[in-house]
Amino acid sequence: MKISQRAQSVPPSATIAVTARAKELKAQGVDVVGFGAGEPDFDTPEYIKEAAVKSLQAGQTKYTAAPGIPELRQAIAAKLQKENGLAYTPEQVIVNLGGKHSVYEAMQAVLDPGDEVILPRPYWVTYPETIKLAGAVAKVIETDKANSYKLTPDQLQAALTDKTGMLVLNSPSNPGGFTYTPDELAALAKVLEGTNVYVMSDEIYEKLIYGDTKFISFAALSDDAFSRTLTLNGFSKAFSMTGWRLGFTAGPLDAIKAMGRLQSHMTSNPVTFAQYAALRALGPEANGAIETMRVEFEKRGKVMADRLNAIPGIECAEPTGAFYCFPDVSSHYGRTIGGAKVADSMDFAKVLLEQAKVAVVPGAPFGCADNVRLSFACSMEQITKGLDRLEKWLAE
Ligand SMILES: Cc1ncc(COP(=O)(O)O)c(C=O)c1O
Questions:
Q1: Which atom number of ligand 1 is nearest to the Cα of residue 103?
Q2: Mean pLDDT of all residues belonging to the chain
């Protein structure tokens, strides 16, 4: 039986593939150090789990309104007002089934076949595929390593055409842990004034910022930015709720209503008791729970970047956000290690896993073949062990 062209055009997620292979080895009893996973190693805070249990016990087990329960939309609008300075009404907020779903549905709602989407490289692996699934075309922009792989106003200006439908921004970023400064974002916003270009601002790592890094929502830059931005966020990373599948989007009312129409046919509401738990997640305990994790991630990111930079032939910028290091390892390409040829990032990740039992994600699916991604969402002990192994493997 046939498989659609659409489905055939989409490869499986590279990050999920590496994690799956590492899990397979672990299941065989192999001692693998996993730097592949894009999820916090902390459990969901207890107060959130309790809220889900209470919700189930109270019989909150039926369908809700497709875009989410009104209380949660209201609480998200209040969070966006208080923390981000964004005056969205609850009707301008939709609760989705994970941040990934927010990205997919937002693109489905506002892009037409042939529209161009400006996508700075490196990018999160899911963006090119969701752009393709919307029938649109990714216009990938080469960014400069010396500028922490960030899009400049001149590059944005040069990329704009009358077909441009959207600019995708992700700060703090996956895979790099890079963050734009408020001034850098303001300069990009200025370039878009007078255009009809949406900005998809994926702010899922908003809470995970380090050192003196400042976070600002793109939509908070100006009235013009507010009117063109789809602000995406979710509960997975900040609250360690990856398995709960809860994301949200806020933006222009027409776009959010369009997402709501799609959602009403594609998935209906996000899981009911998970929404009640999310409501509680945003309550007064939120900041304490997030800060504990943030402080730990900051320590780990520093240690990982320092250790990577101490390995000959590896260059790694210290992450200013998220929980990833994205070192350039390309000076090792062309070598034969332990009898295996390491020609590119795919080989690097594969051979490293098979020989040294360390799981990293190749940079190629993120658009940067010189790099590999290491997640520091794992214990300090695992970081030390994995980097000892990597160092030894490269010294062969
Ligand atoms: C940049 C970015 N956006 C969105 C997501 C989606 O998160 P989830 O679907 O788990 O909520 C991820 C997860 O890896 C991400 O890295």
A1: 4
A2: 95
